[in-house]
Specification:
This protein is of the alpha+beta class. It has six helices and 14 strands. A hairpin with a 3-residue loop joins strand 9 and strand 10. The longest helix has 19 residues, at 30-48. Fe (ii) ion binds at residues 143, 145, 150, 175, 181. Fe (ii) ion binds next to loops.
Length: 215
Amino acid sequence: MGKLSDQVDWQYLLREFWLLYRFGSAGGNPTIRSHLKEVRNRLNAELEKNPTVAFDQPNHLPVCAWFNRAIDQGLNERTAPLARAVMRVQDQLTWRYGYERMRPGLARKYAYAELLGPNGPVISENLILGIVLFAPKCTYPEHSHDGISESYICISGSISDSNYSVFSPGSLLFNPPKRAHRMTTGDFEPTLLAYAWTGEPEKLANQKMDFSVRK
Ligand SMILES: [Fe+2]
């Protein structure tokens, strides 16, 4: 347990996150522009507090086999600064599934690691920042988030949003609360996404992700 001021690699990781949300395009959309601003404002407020950093046990899940390839590909993209900053902290990441009941196929191809949030490593009640890693040919089933606004920024690889769009490095996908979204990744390369969640502190602290029930 320490303070962010003692963790130089984590300071730069959060700075790269901030820059993504400062210089990433909102595509002229006012709702997305205000989400980008809200993420930056919340992150600024946390950084001013010199937050506590508390690492959980670092671990590996099956999808981590694709981590190096995802970083290598990300280093060729305009999102390289964030890919490099993630690489610098890879030994301190705790990977999770986030679901009480995990689908076996998905357990081999997906996991996320939080960087900042109520569960750390950088402690914040008002914002969650993290990364999600997917193997190639992964379908992340339809799900939604109650009381949470979510954005994903593609860092490496590519990902589709339901049957509507495909996102490549630098692209942003915004999900307002309760919007159901299903994602698939490309055939050959893994996909690394950065994500941000904003919402009320109790929603961020007690987020239960649920897959939609298919009828
Ligand atoms: Fe989501």
